[in-house]
Amino acid sequence: MHFDAVLCLGNSLPHVSSEHELESTLNDFAELLAPNSLLLLQMRNFDHIMNQKLRWMDRSAVRKNQRR
Fold it and tell me: DSSP labels for 11-49?
């Protein structure tokens, strides 16, 4: 079975434990893709973000409760 898209979003790939495991995972994705299809990867390490107290969204982008 082949797919038109494979999406791997969020906090999944940062938890792959080795370069070999990452290569194996990417090869598995490639085998699942139909010709001319989409592979969308996101590497967002939430553990690192929280441990370092980093912000991935600027404070000014957060809207407080507002009355209309």
Answer: SSGGG--SHHHHHHHHHHHHHHEEEEEEEEE----HHHH
